Amino acid sequence: MTVNLKETRIDGGVVYDGPFLKVERDQVRLPDGKTSHRELIRHPGAVVILPLLPDGRVLLERQFRYPNSQVFIEFPAGKIDPGEDHLACAKRELEEETGYSASKWRFVCTIHNAIAYSDEHLELFLAEDLVDGEQKLDDGEFLETFTATVPELLEMVRRGEITDVKTIIGAFWLEKILSGSWTPA
What we know:
Blueprint: E1 8-17, E2 22-29, E3 35-42, E4 46-51, E5 58-65, E6 70-74, E7 77-79, H1 86-98, E8 101-111, E9 122-131, E10 144-148, H2 150-158, H3 165-179
Parallel strand pairs: 4-9
Antiparallel strand pairs: 1-2, 2-3, 4-7, 5-6, 5-10, 8-9
Helix pairs in contact: 2-3
Keywords: Hydrolase
Family: Belongs to the Nudix hydrolase family. NudK subfamily.
Cofactor: Mg(2+)
């Protein structure tokens, strides 16, 4: 037996319209006929790059994240511009943030990291055959890069040094890809 789980928008709209995010508050009809409200963040989407160096090490970043007031360890990532192709965005972000470019790219998966309150989606790409170049950070962007082996990366996850969800998911995908258990799409 299939249960109706769908909520239907009745009314609502944008309560905040910023240059990066939009916040909406909607009135919805629940599956049982009652009404409720939903607040959500509209996000343009982003890419995440899993950069694999020729020696098997991965390229990571340390970056201060204001909402949590701490430095996080992450894979390179960035917002998709309006109308921008996802792979083109990944290539641009890798070069801007790290200075590296890659000659081999594979789509890994799409993840939705905050489904209770946001429509944000993250497109993960594996970047291989990396060549070093010059970083081209955006104005006001500050980060440092470093490398780690996949076992070291997984140990940082296990110890709680990496808590960023996109990086944790990317680390697990990398482990499966490199072991031959999983193949990117």
